[in-house]
Amino acid sequence: MEKIQIYDTTLRDGAQAEGISFSTEDKLDIASKLDLFGIDYIEGGWPSSNPKDSSFFDSAKNSRFTHAKLTAFGSTRRVGLACSNDPSIKSIAESGVKCASIFGKSWDFHVTDALRISLDENLEIVADSISFLKNRGMEVLFCAEHFFDGYLHSPDYALSVLEAAESAGADWLILCDTNGGTLPSAVEDITAIVVEQFRTTVGIHAHNDADLAVANTLAAVSAGASMVQGTINGIGERCGNANLCSIIPNLELKMGLKTNIPDLSQLTAISKFVSETANMTVGRKLPYVGTSAFAHKGGIHVSAVLKDSRTYEHIDPSIVGNERRILISELSGNSSLKAKLGELGIDLDDEDGKRILQRIKDMESQGYQFEGAEASFELLIRRMKDGLRPPFRVEGFRIFVDVTEANVSSEASIKVFDVSGMMEHTAANGNGPVNALDRAVRKALERFYPNLKDVKLVDYKVRVIDGKEATGAKVRVLMRNTDGFDSWTTIGVSTNVIEASLSALLDSLEYKLLKSKEATAN
Amino acid sequence: MEKIQIYDTTLRDGAQAEGISFSTEDKLDIASKLDLFGIDYIEGGWPSSNPKDSSFFDSAKNSRFTHAKLTAFGSTRRVGLACSNDPSIKSIAESGVKCASIFGKSWDFHVTDALRISLDENLEIVADSISFLKNRGMEVLFCAEHFFDGYLHSPDYALSVLEAAESAGADWLILCDTNGGTLPSAVEDITAIVVEQFRTTVGIHAHNDADLAVANTLAAVSAGASMVQGTINGIGERCGNANLCSIIPNLELKMGLKTNIPDLSQLTAISKFVSETANMTVGRKLPYVGTSAFAHKGGIHVSAVLKDSRTYEHIDPSIVGNERRILISELSGNSSLKAKLGELGIDLDDEDGKRILQRIKDMESQGYQFEGAEASFELLIRRMKDGLRPPFRVEGFRIFVDVTEANVSSEASIKVFDVSGMMEHTAANGNGPVNALDRAVRKALERFYPNLKDVKLVDYKVRVIDGKEATGAKVRVLMRNTDGFDSWTTIGVSTNVIEASLSALLDSLEYKLLKSKEATAN
Q: Which domains does chain B have, with CATH numbers?
């Protein structure tokens, strides 16, 4: 059986998403991960279009990929210009990569109304551009822009564009649903016609404007397409591109097809890596790879999934490197809480269970959300169940911020006691009040607990709980810390952002001390 | 042509999404909006399962819906219990609504391994539960849980469950892809078999675990299903339910089918209302209704879409109540910027264009993101182009926060000058430092500009720009203010959360004064 080729355009089409901006280093990092993951083609960008893409191709020349073919993207030559003088075609030929993706018009309305040239002239442009790059020894993918819309409008012309591309030596005919509005039935029927009529291999490039990009991609594969194009997490312009993190497991696990991905359990890690590199909020709901994809909240689902995971899970989450999570909320009964505590290795009799569940519900009604703050949750349980006490106590703090036209200063002072009653009264400056307080607390506590020096904040988020109250409302602070090995998230809630931050920070440090103590005891 | 019935389960399946928690008032508000929008069935919840759902049904008894049928959800009766003694069945019968959705097992493995009863006993349970509610005059939907998985495993048994439901008088047979893992081709084939074999009308309930919920829903409709179930924005457990905001326009605009929605242009407003009520971050990329759904960033797309919107838009955004947006970023050329400024009614010659574009790129590299802060963007342009100066100036401020075990206090003092050089030096307390500063600034400025009293903050968000620097990193503050008629968003960036907040606040107040002046001038 032939393997379906996977073509990633995260670095080009993905970079056109609202809010996404990759640096050259980001792009090199992502390309290297995609290569190791087993992606066949990595579209690096559009060499002539902006300095960032040009610098990426310059740097990528020195990168060695173990498997992937790095690909340069660009348009067919401009009207009235020879390929040898066309900046886009030239920059692809000179980009140092061996594979080119060239997009051209296949919808007659675009040729006559957007390009404003004759239909025949467009065929010449397509053929010229492909021949030029083929003559330089490159593998060439011809991307037929708006192919499905074009076919539905004028099937003969759309097919004649593919004929021109095939005659000029294109290695692939890529059918693009550029506007993302085509239905799967149409994609399947039209792809089948192309696969039937052409000897060149066919690929599919779908967008998600009608929420059908993954379905359209699978429909094209069913009809004989042997390359799928998309992006990690489905990032891309407007509603995004077809999501490779959904397509790859669907091909392998649902359709019984093969790809060159050696280890599908790296899928969740690749998704997270791209989200973090793009500094995006990770889509919790993302199929297969989202943190909610195998999270169970309703009481019935939780108790059933614990009996047999097939009851509410379509696949074993470990196959894609994800994991099951039991969520605690007002919809939870004691059985969910017991399961959650079981995950933490804590036994619980029914009386404790009721008391803890009530306390959680009370705190949630004050604005706490333990779903995203599992370290704070564990501390809460241990405090209530085992009488855990923090090994330090903050008696109070002061913040002073002074901003003039010439000067900005932020200072925090704090008093901290350790378990034996030893007091440390110290102060620190910072970039802002939260940073000053953070530095003061760490400065004080590191005297008592030197291993806290390894703890570094890696994420800090603030969200207003009730938007209607605006700056006077309660805020929820989430902090993620790491000690270089593990990372954990804590929560603080207050109307005062600084108090909420301190609360999350103290939980974080207490959690580290608890884990170090457990590690020493084992 | 028969109209496709739309069944919304936002208030029940949607409420099982991670991070979602609706109050009773939220649920009443959403139900009322869904009714006005033209939804046919609104599933309000599970009357017996938790106090919130019970209180919703109590309150909803007094609500009058113009079109929708409010529906109570629950399971078939428990094993060994008569319906008249079953808490779930009883609570549905007593909920005060005329329509019930009852779910039961149709996958033999669930019957034998989860329920641990005989296959025949399950058929009796299904028939009993439906008959009981039918005898009380209710319309009854039978939801066949895991129907597709069940059919693929044991087709005869899955169909026998539907036969039991039909014989007992069920008004609808709802085929559920409970685990969300079925492919559209299987959904289409199996639905066609059910539609062929049964005289009862058929509905589809799909989940998005394989990123195919919308496609599966459309596949079932193609095969003859006449009811679609889903949620607004696709919220729901794990990866979510089928998204009605995608399904409804696909049915109407792509498949040429009819629904009872009188005005599709309310779709975007319904999506936003549910997101805001749920206090969720609105999915920018959501098909049809997302803020990015018709946003254009790449230079070629922008210039083409301005020539003819069909080039890169699959539908006219106004049909679903959305709008086109031109995004400004490093990928933009002068043509995008001109188009954006055209939206603001500003002309721009090329020299100004280059200067402004350079300034925007510089600010973006410092962490500004104007995509979400259009009021700050307009002020920036007017300052650079028209020499706009703010009608007030803040010379400096001080913040003092004092937290002890007994007491928390936050105070801000500030000096503000108006255009004539008049100075106001004032101070205020607040719940936290940002709130104190906010109140001090407003107190000072309202003396000069009384119409600022109408301005209220409605949203305040803080995000760390570079997570690697944690509390020492730059933060981006976004504020949304309203004067009761319009609302607008501004941005501030600084390493100091208080300075960033002040910057966004001052932009917001300046923007209000600018708009009031323009309104007076016209």
A: 5-262 (3.20.20.70), 350-391+450-522 (3.30.160.340), 396-448 (3.30.160)
Residue A103 forms contact with B (CB below 8 Å):
no
Residue B467 in this model has a pLDDT that exceeds 50: no
* CB within 8 Å: A456 and B470: yes
pLDDT tens-place string over residues B245-281: 999 999 999 999 999 999 999 999 899 888 867 766 6
Both tokens assigned to B329: 């970023």
- Interface residue of B55, B76, B238 to substitute, partner A, most A CBs within 10 Å: B238
Q: How far is Cα A497 from Cα A462, in angstroms, rounded to an integer?
A: 8
Residue A435 and residue B18: Cβ atoms within 8 Å?
A: no
Cα(A239)–Cα(A133) distance, integer angstroms:
32
- Provide the terminal-to-terminal Cα distance of chain B, rounded to the nearest Å: 50
Compare all CA atoms of chain A with the CA of B184 and give the residue at the minimum distance. Answer: A215
Q: B241 vs chain A: nearest CA distance in angstroms?
A: 10
Residue B288 and residue A239: Cα distance in Å, rounded? 8
Chain B residues within 8 A of A294 when measuring between CB atoms: 238
pLDDT digits (tens, 9 = 90+) for A319-346: 999 988 877 665 555 566 666 777 666 6
In this complex, the residue of A243, A327, A461 whose CB is nearest that of residue B464 is A461
Q: How confident is the model at residue A347 (pLDDT cuts 50, 70, 90)?
A: low
Q: B169 with B198: CB under 8 angstroms?
A: no
The pLDDT assigned to B468 comes to 46
Give the nearest partner residue to B307 out of A114, A465, A498, using CB atoms. A114
Residues of chain A contacting B496 with CB distance shorter than 8 Å: 401, 403, 408, 410, 431-433
**Across A181-206, average pLDDT:** 98
Give the count of beta carbons closer than 10 Å to the beta carbon of residue B84: 10
The strand pair at A325-326 and A295-296 is best described as parallel
Sign of the alpha-carbon dihedral angle for B185, B188, B189, B190 = positive
Q: How far apart are CA A303 and CA A495, in angstroms?
A: 37
Task: State the pLDDT confidence band at A252, using cuts at 50, 70 and 90.
Answer: very high
Find chain B residues with C-beta within 8 A of A330's C-beta: 21, 50, 52
Contact assignment for A398 to B399 by CB distance below 8 Å: no
A224-235 per-position pLDDT tens digit: 999 999 999 999
Task: Reply yes or no on whether the pLDDT at B116 is more than 70.
Answer: yes
**CB neighbours of A88 closer than 8 A, spacing ≥ 6?**
A46, A48, A49, A74, A75, A77, A78
Q: Residue A130 has what pLDDT?
A: 98
- B406-429 per-position pLDDT tens digit: 788 889 999 999 888 889 999 999
Mutation target for B interface from A496, A502, A508: give the one with most B CBs within 10 A: A496
Closest CA to B112 of A307, A473, A390, A403: A307
Average pLDDT across chain A, whole number = 88
Per-residue buried b or exposed e for B33-63, using 16+ beta carbons within 10 Å of the residue's own CB: bbbbbbbbbbbbbbbbbbebbbbbbeebeee
**Per the CB < 8 Å rule, is B234 touching A292?**
no
- Which of chain A's residues have a Cβ under 8 Å away from the Cβ of B460? 464, 467, 470-471, 473
Q: State in Å, rounded, how far the first CA of chain A is from the last one.
A: 51
How far does A286 lie from chain B, in Å, by closest CA?
6
Helix runs in B284-393, H state only: 299-307, 334-343, 350-365, 374-386
Contacts of B222 in chain A (CB under 8 A): 185
Contacts of A152 in chain B (CB under 8 A): none
How far off is chain B from A495, nearest CA to CA, in Å?
6
Average pLDDT over residues A120-130: 97
Dump pLDDT digits (tens) for B204-222: 999 999 999 999 999 999 9
